[in-house]
Specification:
3% of the residues lie in helices and 37% in strands. The protein has two helices and 33 strands.
Length: 469
């Protein structure tokens, strides 16, 4: 596991008060072919699903293993052309993968149906899987070649969650989204560790519809159109679902961690707007998105959901939910603002057609486009662009114990000098600085690691780490 400098803990608090993050991309790895899913297995590797039927391993240094981790190309159907929604789509590693070697995949087979199955490795450190270890858990008949959903993830409850689209066809013609007797248009939840009922999986006892004889027991939530990607917030355990719209709206849904049986409204509603309400339940029984993007006012056409940032390397991102779009090539973020969410969109990163985000073991984020062979790391450009006239200030002695000297040379004096501890708590502030050389008493500060931030009158800033002994 990577260890980042303590400064990142402190910078989170600075970014909340003084700087808005700027999303930028850095090439992390190249040589991929139609990447559609990125996951980690509890170590420093990233596992990239390629739509044609492969899982490739990316190492911590960005190198790509030559031999695929898994090759099921002969089993996968319908992924021959970019833009086809079928193929190898989903991947999830068992919470106990280091000891049992189990991982789960979601793909469209050569008959056009969805397969959810398990594979196993002989050792968690293995870089190659025997494809003959497959055990099929679920087969879902697909009436059309689009709206397969296909993402998967394990919750902290140990159960496997699976996204399933409505089966395709314009406007959900057979109303699968609202039909509780169908697995289409749903978020499913199954127990992969306790098989029962003649299946290779079991039903969690608290699934919401197990007492409804007309409903499938596997259903956790319903009323979604094509939840191409969803994710768990590793801090709150909430589920974030980006649901691809029909023709008017893309939507982002948030599912509280302990709330089951929610109806997200499709085909009755698209976003917050009525779509086809014939025979629908009262809208008060439905859960509406936390955010929508109207096709009439954006270039969005097919949303890809990402993650709520919980890493440490880019503190200004903390708590942001990341998403992107296949058509517009924009990357978006949502920031919680009381009971609402503020949305920000980047300029287009043209030529990528975003289809997948990834989160590594440390919570750092990556993104991939179906038209690109590259996996990018998502970065905060405000931490890499130094526009501060104080960037080269001198601070001594360091380590220090009684007094700290700061020299700013010909750049002149800053406005404010702020001390934070490693938890980001403000410890000391010196305001209205009027000298290019400053001596500050620190004898009342406890021993340990601190961060000294220099602020200019125009918002410029620079940061250095300080050790007190």
């Amino acid at each position: 596991m990577k260890n980042y400098p303590f400064v990142v803990l402190f910078l989170f608090f600075l970014s909340q008060s003084y700087a808005q993050p700027v999303v930028s991309l850095e090439s992390f790895a190249t040589g991929l072919n139609k990447p559609v899913n990125i996951k980690h297995a509890g170590d420093d590797r990233l596992f990239v699903v390629e739509q044609d039927g492969f899982i490739r391993i990316l190492n911590i240094d960005g190198t790509l293993n030559t031999t695929p981790f898994l090759d099921i190309e002969s089993k996968v159907g319908g992924s021959g052309n970019i833009g086809d929604e079928r193929g190898f789509l989903g991947l999830a590693f068992h919470p106990n993968y280091p000891t049992n070697g189990f991982f789960y995949v979601n793909y469209t087979n050569t008959a056009g149906n969805t397969i959810v199955s398990r594979f196993s490795v002989s050792s968690a450190s293995s870089n190659i899987v025997d494809a003959s270890t497959e055990q099929i858990l679920l087969t879902i008949a697909q009436p059309a070649g689009n709206h397969n959903g296909g993402d998967m993830a394990f919750g902290t409850d140990g159960f496997l969650y699976i996204s399933s689209g409505d089966g395709g066809g314009s406007g959900d013609p057979t109303d699968k989204g609202q039909d509780l007797s169908s697995l289409l248009g749903k978020i499913l939840r199954i127990d992969v560790d306790n098989a029962s009922g003649g299946n290779n999986y079991g039903i969690p006892t608290d699934n919401p519809f197990i007492s409804n004889s007309a409903a499938r027991d596997e259903i956790w939530a319903y009323g979604v159109r094509n939840p191409w990607k969803f994710s768990f917030d590793r801090q709150t355990n909430d589920i974030w679902i980006a649901d691809v719209g029909q023709g008017g709206f893309e939507e982002i849904n948030r599912m509280p961690a302990t709330t089951a049986g929610l109806n997200y409204g499709w085909r009755c509603y698209e976003g917050n707007n009525p779509f086809n309400t014939g025979g629908c339940a009262n809208m008060n029984t439905m859960t509406f998105p936390v955010a929508t993007l109207a096709h009439s006012t954006t270039s969005f056409c097919s949303i890809t959901g990402g993650y709520r940032y919980r890493g440490t390397q880019y503190p200004g991102f903390q708590g942001l939910y990341f998403f992107a779009d296949y058509c517009s090539n924009e990357i978006g973020t949502l920031r919680e603002n009381g009971s609402t969410w503020d949305m920000t969109l980047t300029p287009p990163f043209n030529g990528n057609s975003w289809v997948a985000f990834g989160e590594d073991v440390d919570g750092e984020l990556y993104i991939a486009g179906i038209n690109s062979s590259t996996i990018y790391k998502i970065k905060d450009a405000t931490l890499s662009i130094d526009n501060s006239s104080f960037a080269n200030f001198k601070m001594y002695p360091n380590p220090a114990s009684q007094e700290l000297n700061l020299e700013f040379g010909v750049t002149g004096s800053p406005d404010t000098i702020v001390f934070y501890d490693i938890q980001g708590r403000l410890i000391k502030k010196v305001e209205n600085v009027s000298s290019a050389t400053v001596t500050i008493s620190i004898q009342n500060l406890k021993k340990g690691c601190y961060f000294v931030e220099i602020l200019g009158v125009l918002g410029e800033k620079a940061v250095k780490k300080l050790i007190l002994n």
